[in-house]
Amino acid sequence: MKNFSISDIEALIGIKAHTIRAWEIRYNLVPPKRTPTNIRYYTEEDLKSLLNIVALNENGYKISRIAKMSQKQISDLVIQLKTDWKNDSIQILNLSNATLEYNEEVFSETLAGCIDEMGLVKTMDLVLFPFMKKIGMLWQTGTIDPSHEHFASNLIRDRIIVEIDRVEKPKRKHPKRFLLFLPEAEMHETGLLFTRYLLKKCGHETLYLGSEIPYPDLVKVVASYKPDYAFIVLTSLNLGKDINKVIGKVMDNLNVPLLVAGSLISEFDILVKDQLTPLKNVCDMTEFLEEL
């Protein structure tokens, strides 16, 4: 059983530490345990309780009302909310809880429910991208283990591949050719696989190379495949803060227009260059592809 500090809890549930303390003082909600040296900590059960409380609070239940409920009443209400697949805040909490428990059944059920109800595009935009950003930050700060991030990423990856296989590629008179890859030090394929899904839906051709492609290899691939566009996704904090340097290295080994997406594109100022198109969100990506 893992124990959490109040700062860990703050990061995991998205509620400020002073608010958590106020709930404890006013309503005796989830009081922390203490070590022999009087250091406060929370257990995994405490975390689950707080996640349930946040779920109800974000859906209109006042804390004063929640404080009067039994654990069973809270759990029953949360179970009812869990099937509201269009409620993105609830589904992000569901995925977070399932990740902490390594619960593949709940994670996959939540993912399938969202996709069946909203489709993959809206699920990615409203649920999965915000969830993955949160998980990535928790991993980087040590609040969760790397294994948690890998657990979630691999299940999402597997589901997107299933969705790609389900797409009936439309016939297009003049399809474009896209080279999809991740540069050195970038290993998170989720966004790139989602791009492959979008391109297949639009009837375009893709060559998918996956993660951490050495820069010198790009010259040979471009010469052989002759793509109309190259597409990369940048999300890993391992790339450093100088994202423009990474983009520059990629462009030095390409002679085709480059499309760049990913969470880092919205966080840093991207230098304007010829043949470079930054796509900051799902809306930008879909609009660009629809206009081709």
From TrEMBL:
Keyword match Acetylation: no
GO molecular function, one term: cobalamin binding
SUPFAM superfamilies reported in the protein's UniProt record: Cobalamin (vitamin B12)-binding domain (SSF52242), Putative DNA-binding domain (SSF46955)
PROSITE patterns tied to this protein: HTH_MERR_2
Pfam families: B12-binding_2, MerR_1
Key words, A-Z: DNA-binding, Repressor, Transcription, Transcription regulation
Coiled-coil ranges from the UniProt annotation: none
CDD domains: HTH_MlrA-CarA
Gene3D superfamilies: 1.10.1660.10, Cobalamin-binding domain (3.40.50.280), Methionine synthase domain (1.10.1240.10)
Keyword Repressor attributed: yes
Domain of life: Bacteria
Domain HTH merR-type intervals: 3-72
Stated name of the protein: B12 binding protein
